[in-house]
Amino acid sequence: MDLRKIxxxxxxxxxxxxxxxxxxxxxxxxxxHEQTQTNPSSLNTLTGDxxxxxVKKVIDGDTIILSDGTHVRYLGINAPEMTHxxxxxxxxxxxxxxxxxxxxxxxxxxxxxxxxxxxxxxxxDANKFDRYGxxxxxxxxxxxxxxxxxxxxxxxxxGAAFYYPSPIPVNYTAELISAQEQARLARxxxxxxxxxxxxxxxxxxxxxxxxKRYYHRPGFKYYEATVVNLNHGDRWFCSExxxxxxxxxxxxx
Length: 253
Fold this sequence. Notes:
Elements: H1 3-38, E1 53-58, E2 63-66, E3 71-74, E4 77-78, H2 86-93, H3 104-115, E5 119-123, E6 135-141, H4 151-157, E7 162-163, H5 173-185, H6 190-193, E8 203-207, E9 213-216, E10 235-237, H7 240-245, E11 249-250
Parallel strand pairs: 3-6, 9-11
Antiparallel strand pairs: 1-2, 1-5, 2-3, 4-7, 5-6, 8-9, 8-10
């Protein structure tokens, strides 16, 4: 066999092997790519530590203490402030001691009924700690690891807490906003009990483009033009007092 035939045979073998590699490897790579594109959440699956904890104490409507002493702040929500425990309140919330916000005691009681002495699991998100060193988490009643068992969401549904926007994008924002709007329109919890204007909590708390906070009552100059965007930190209030306690100033009438 001359050299030319040997080269042709070798080339043919190389081409055959190349075709086999393409047909075997390429579909697998395409499938992986397709799975990544159609299920991007698989890249960022949010998980907890896999442990179960007992809730030792309820501080208020959005903060608990676990059996190991960990202070957990419910992620994505904010309950009416309390000063029933001055030392803890000032340390954890930065309160000045000028009294509880409307529905503060009721929110704590609802939280106690949900979790005190019960087993819970934690799910962490992008921001795991707040500026006070408390653990931020989505808290679930064990073993109900779904939306029905999520305490954060149940507190908002029962009108015991507000949706609280995170500076870092987190999960369940849409669910919390929807739950708050349903509770507000149905006047559930604080939306029905606290001070109301025109029969409902209708004071608009707005963060302007400079991050300054103003609240608008019905009849104020810019009330109708003001849009409450909960995802950007805006809030509904039931009374001017609650708006002022949350750091919002009276807008132009």
